[in-house]
Write a structure and sequence with these properties.
Blueprint lengths: L4 E3 L4 H10 L4 E3 L5 H4 L9 E4 L9 E2 L2 E3 L4 H6 L7 H7 L3 H6 L2 H7 L4 H9 L2 E5 L6 E4 H6 L7 E6 L6 E10 L2 E13 L3 E8 L2 E7 L11 H25 L10 E5 L2
Parallel strand pairs: 1-3, 2-3
Antiparallel strand pairs: 4-5, 5-8, 6-7, 6-8, 9-10, 9-13, 10-11, 11-12
The protein binds flavin-adenine dinucleotide.
Length: about 260
């Protein structure tokens, strides 16, 4: 297989120079989806820019993560809040998770498990593109605008950790196979709830950012309500999905699988 010219910047400044000088350079996170495309000359880029060695991009903590943080890191670092940890844990097997990155997952958009979790957290995304100021944008707005097309995702941040979180994936068979729909929800102080959905045929987006106040009670009532909300919205998302893919919906009944807390 002929490979592209590979550039491996070690700082964001160097990365910015690469993007400016080679506008056709394709970013590579873990390469789990991108590298197999190189087998076909029609989808092989002239230049690939590796993000793994860019300083600061592989880290993760309580309130943010770099785009090159691997799903393994997100799944195993106890500082990473649910539902992002659960989302990362739910993807593929250990070999893929050790390579795949959150930036690649969000850029790919489908099935978008990590994007759903980040939306539920209220994340912002930092984008870098030639001719544009580097900056943070709400992820929901960025995705709605078709980002990160033409830009490199540098990282994600959120401003509060949830008091409770749920991450659910609906798959065709018991907990295995690609998801049909993913739902992530977070409950924050003051009874605020943010709920997001994604799937192979559902662009990651927010379904709800607030819950009706009377339905939110203290303690267990909160958790019960959150569960109800996720089930209800998840079912609605799945129904919408099956409507749009009616021709492909034959087969075993989808099974609801809870992953994470
Ligand atoms: C067996 C298997 C099961 C999977 N199951 C799921 C699942 O259940 N849910 C789910 O959500 N995903 C699933 N995936 C997808 C998996 O999460 C992706 O392989 C992974 O997220 C891609 O990440 P990567 O870092 O390897 O991306 P790459 O392969 O490096 O890149 C993918 C695309 O994103 C672009 N890109 C990469 N990083 C950036 C960046 N920082 N900024 C802008 N663009 C960028 C690349 O140019 C490329 O177009 C599965 C994959 C496999 C192989």
């Amino acid at each position: 297989m002929t490979v592209p010219e590979v550039v491996a910047p070690t700082s964001v400044a160097e990365l910015a120079r690469v993007l400016r000088d080679r506008p056709d350079a394709v970013p590579v996170g873990g390469g789990t989806l991108e590298v197999p495309r190189w087998a076909d000359p029609r989808t092989r880029p002239a230049t690939a820019v590796l993000l793994a060695g860019v300083e600061g991009l592989a880290s993760a903590d309580r309130l943010g993560c770099g785009a090159a943080a691997t799903l393994h890191t997100l799944a195993t670092d106890p500082r990473v809040p649910q539902p992002l940890r659960a989302a990362a844990r739910s993807v593929a097997g250990p070999a893929v998770r050790s390579l795949a990155t959150v930036g690649g997952n969000v850029a790919q958009a489908a099935p978008g498990c990590l994007a759903a979790a980040l939306l539920a957290l209220g994340a912002e995304v930092e984008l870098l593109a030639p001719g544009r100021p580097r900056g943070w944008t709400p992820l929901a707005d960025a995705l709605a605008a078709g980002e990160p097309r033409g830009a490199v995702v540098l990282g994600f941040r959120w401003h509060e950790t949830p008091l409770g979180a749920v991450f659910r994936k609906t798959t065709r068979s018991q907990g295995a196979g690609p998801p049909l729909a993913t739902v992530a929800a977070c409950r924050f102080a003051g009874g605020r709830v943010r709920l997001a959905v994604a799937g192979p045929d559902i662009p990651p987006h927010l379904l709800a950012v607030e819950a009706p106040a009377p339905l939110i009670g203290p303690g267990a009532a909160d958790a019960a309500y959150l569960r109800w909300l996720v089930r209800r919205q998840g079912r609605l998302a799945l129904e919408a999905l099956l409507d749009t893919t009616a021709g492909r919906s034959a087969g075993p009944s989808p099974v609801d699988t809870e992953k994470g807390n």
